[in-house]
Amino acid sequence: MNTTSYLAIKEHIFNNLKKIDGVLPENKIEEEVNSTKLVINKIGYEMFAKVISVEFISELEDDDWKRITRELETHFDVKMQAGILIQGIEQQVRDNTWWTSVEKQKNKKYYWERYKNYISSFLPTEVARTIDTDTDIVMNNIENPILPLFSRYGMVVGHVQSGKTGNYAGLVCKAADAGYKFIVVIAGGMNNLRNQTQERLNEAFVGHTNGVQVGAGKGDLDKVSTPYSLTTVLRDFNRHDADRASQGLNFETINVPILIVIKKNTSTLKSVISWLEKQYKNKVADHAMLVIDDESDYASVNTKEEEDPTAINGGIRKLLSLFSRSAYVAYTATPYANIFINHEAGNESIGRDLFPKDFIYSLDAPSNYFGARKIFLDTNNKHLIEITDNEDDLPIGHRKDIEISSIPDSLKEAIEVFLLNIAIRNLRGYGNSHNSMLVHATRFTGVHQKIAVMITAYLESIQEDVIVFGMLPDARNQSFLIRALSETYTKYFNQNEFSWEDTLEVLTQKISSVLVREVHQKTTVPLEYRKDVVTNAIVIGGTSLARGYTLEGLSVSYFLRNTVFYDTLMQMGRWFGYRSGYEDLCKIYMPYNKIVDFAEIITATEELMYDFQLMSDNNMTPEKFGLAIKQNPNSALQITARNKQKNVREFNYSMRLDGKAKETSVLSSKSNEIINNIECVRNLINSLPADSHKINNNFLWKDVDRKLILKFLNDFTTFQNDPLGLTARMPISFIKKYVQERNENWDIALYSGQGETFTINSNIVIQKEKRKIITKSDNNYELQNRQVSSGNAESISLDDAERKKIGTNRIEARRIMKRPLLMLHIIEPNPEMSSINDNALAAFGTSFPGDVLSDTETITLKINTVYYNNLLKEVEEENESDD
């Protein structure tokens, strides 16, 4: 394939499609591709080259035309919906259309129109339109800047690496158009993220960098309206720089907006505050201020007493208190910590805490977003490669003084995949795009440095051999490293559109450009994505990369970090984002338990979003939403960590099980306990009435006395990581207390599968359910993907019409269930595990009727200090990181 010809023809079709207003009609892309082919067939490639003003075009193959169609569909056939809004009580009675109904219509929308034209050049039409809608809704909720006195607190929740910066850049533009004069963007806690954020806001809002027009500012002749930025891409806020830059400016009468992009750092906040206090003797009555707090769950939340808040939390609150008209909007992908802020907390000297009392707005992700569901649930693990060989070289539980003398073969393979990806992307016509690989294997800076040495040595060995032998016809036989590359190509890229020979030829030309970069507090050579030079980088980092920083062209990730916290784990997922043109090349290497953790997180997060929609539909407030999330059993440990209490002797932990399901996805492997649990199932069923309902091959008993349920739960031996089951998928202590406290009967289901026959008693005979046991340790078995029941298991207690209507929607099944459901399973494990007694394992699940709106009492347990401190151990270990 001639890449130049391919790109020229694709760009021609792309430009024709861009001229169409609104959503493309169905089959329009295919029509445009076929129309172009007909024109070329009629006038020839030479004449067509003149028509589209290129020197030369060679003939394309059928596969090339099909690929053009696929790539255009990836760009244009993108769906994205507006988000979901929850408002505070006061906010619900305010003017919530001041922007869309009045000011947007009459104001000159200079900054927004400029930004909209800029993003429309590279974003799908539907995505650009939704950014407009989403930012309109947030604008309606932050307040009209002409009002004499206001303070608004809100939060926008997006997906990790889904485009939150692009969203708040649009908000900044509209706020400036509306009359907000002072705009502060608080980026993450690291210089790299602040610098990246400044660069993007220069492109979106300021319009220039160091006097050179960029992004939305290219070709703009209106110099008078150019925003005034007191920070630059290379320099954070500094009082002396600001004094120099502001000479001759009158901040009382200035007509253009002022932008400051600062690092989330105590000294920087103090500098901004003292500089403002010098500029303005009293509250800034004549200016409205907008504060965007990016990664707001990181460092912004107060973890100390209200009378003595943490420095960053206090600094942000002090900054807001300087202005009599202010709006604070927190942006995050993991909102748990923000929602748990005490909504009544305040301090006379620095003002109220940062709880989003006025609104929470949840953004949707576009359909081309490469997110957790697509990676961990929907694509049959095609992007995932399990790491099983790290313990000798890079054990997960290592100390900071570990010696690194070699790297695992899996990491070597990941490097090979990355090198092949660079070549294939070049063959696909993306030679001017950056390429990155992420290695996140430790939290210690010293260990990052040691890993970097070993990776550099391995990379240089490959580079040397490929440069020397890569162009030879028998290169594979000249070097075992090239042979390893060839074997990796066969393993993962054999169905690729380019041959091994073509791939190696391009790799030989490009491999010398690949470099290794470390990103941590002691980095000496920074990672940089320049506009004029392509960066191909293997990036080694940890915490410094886990908060908002975007690795350009990330296609391979090697991940070994261990944490149980939802927010920490999700923020480490730099591999989420947009991978147009190379999504099929993306690979993520990680241990099996982390693969399962991510699958669990996305399931729990989707339930959270379902709850969010319900609460929005029912006009629930942010305070109610926070309470619902705090009591969500899926968030147990992470929530505990966010709510540290000093000198606690007794800690009450509340959990709401309504609308939730819990299963014994990890089972004891002790022979006596396996036998006991089988007998528990038999004993329970033998105590039930003989007149069961048979649904397909499954059995159902309705309206069963809860005493029988409690006896079963007490007799069954569940495998637990902690005595209360607070951090496990089966919070057994809470479930037992639920049975004790709720005076209601249960339904019981016994499921039949496709395995061997299993006799419960003379009346009840089933077939065991085949499940794969994926891990085996000394004391437990784990079911593959930690899933016991099938997608429609919970609907068994519904009537036929209800069951047909909801299909496999488990959340909806729980909403309409009349009673809690105990689900019994007899598992047939893998054939190689036939030594298990009766070749059978007993498992169970519990499903509870209701949803987030249920007004029943929560289940509460008292936890003593020792247990509570054990729960927090993981947090303390994370805080020991010197990254």
The chain-level mean pLDDT equals 85
How much helical structure, as a percent, in the residues?
40-55%
Instruction: Give the count of structural domains.
Output: 4
β-strand number: 32
Essential attributes:
single chain; 883 residues; alpha/beta; Rossmann fold; 4 domains; eight-stranded mixed beta sheet; seven-stranded mixed beta sheet; globular
What is the structure about, briefly put?
With 883 residues, this protein is of the alpha/beta class.
Task: Give a structural overview.
The strands form 8 sheets. Strands 1-12-2-9-8-3-7-6 form an 8-stranded mixed sheet, with helices on both faces. Strands 20, 22, 23, 24, 27, 30 and 31 form a 7-stranded mixed sheet that branches. Strands 13-18-17-14-16-15 form a 6-stranded parallel sheet. With 883 residues, the chain is α/β, with parallel strands linked by helices. It is globular. The two termini are 46 Å apart. The chain has 31 helices and 32 strands. The longest helix is centred in the last third of the chain and has 26 residues, at 592-617.
